[in-house]
Amino acid sequence: MASPERSTGGGERLTVGLVRGIHGLRGAVRVEVLTDEPSRFEPGSVLWPEGHGRELTVAWAQADEPGLLVRFEEISSREAAETLRDRYLEIEPEGALPEGAYYWHEVVGASVRTGSGEELGRVEEVFRAGDAEVYVVRGGDRGEVLVPAVGDVIEQFEPRAGLIEVDAGALDLEPVTPRRMRGRRSSKLPAEGAAEGLAGEEPTGEESAEGPTTGESAEPPADA
Q1: Which CATH architecture has domain 108-166?
Q2: Which of 78, 92, 195, 197 is most deeply packed, by most CB within 10 A?
């Protein structure tokens, strides 16, 4: 459904790899593969380091999980290989993508929603799992959602318009339960009558404002 290769448009080169590090003393580099076409790194293939005018010819490539070890004919020392560190590797485009195909970078950023209109978030990453691509969607109330890019899940796919619609049932998404609002204690003052009853009650017959209410007299004893 989408290609991991990156095009900047206008007939420019496609990005197929990223040099992540150096291996050994003879100029081999560790490459993160950004293409689903292994032939891009076959011996004799020509690549261009991003920002460099010269081309590089693949001498050999071998698996180095999760990527590749690659040696170029024009690079023979560790010092020369260091100039490639953190640079993208590009190829000349061979032609337009087939109809209905997209580059991965066109999918990233697309809004994802269910058929009922629930917003799941936006595509932040794309990776391949077996024969299918998986879109990592974040930003919605459900947190991270993994969306396999297969026909049973994708109902509408228009990444260039910024929209992907999915079948919630195919993703086994449970209905969202609305959050209950917690009750809060009232900060209101007591009603006027209640306040008077608490603070302004008149003393009863057993209570005197002029003395204690213990039953004993507060007057001094009479002279004997």
Answers
A1: Roll (2.30)
A2: 78
